[in-house]
Design brief:
alpha+beta
């Protein structure tokens, strides 16, 4: 169970990442705050590229930062975003980010938080957002 205090901390961290987002083409800024099972928070923002393909989402930035430091167990992620850093609606993860989450997270347990404010947070499991997900266990069947 992730406490309300932790959710607010995740929200504030993700919101701060909007300031570092590099989105000169879409102008859609996204921030993420990834919570490891040991309680550490890894932040990320989206980083666009003129060639589009090399762009990276905020969620994957946070995951790759954590994994590059040897962390492989995660409890949840907070995602915020909107045009020109204005949070107007919930900002769900794209399919590629959901697949990255599937690689490192238990889909029944991993929490995905989408927020408009620290008082307006909705919660999903990865399985709810990626039903019938394909993961490393499928390779061993």
């Amino acid at each position: 169970m992730i406490s309300n205090e932790t959710k607010i901390e995740l929200f504030n961290t993700a919101k701060e990442m909007l300031k570092l987002s590099y989105a000169p083409y879409s102008h859609f800024h996204v921030g993420a705050a990834l919570l490891s099972k040991d309680g550490k928070i890894y932040s990320g923002c989206n980083i666009e590229n003129a060639a589009y393909g090399p762009s990276n989402c905020a969620e994957r930035t946070a995951f790759f930062k954590a994994v590059s430091e040897g962390v492989l167990q995660f409890a949840g992620i907070m995602i915020v975003g909107g045009p020109d850093s204005n949070i107007k609606d919930y900002c769900p993860p794209c399919g590629v980010c959901r697949q990255v989450m599937m690689e490192f997270c238990n889909p029944d347990e991993f929490k995905i938080f989408l927020a408009k404010s620290e008082n307006d947070i909705i919660e999903y499991t990865l399985k709810e957002l990626l039903p019938q997900g394909f993961g490393n266990a499928d390779l061993n069947k």
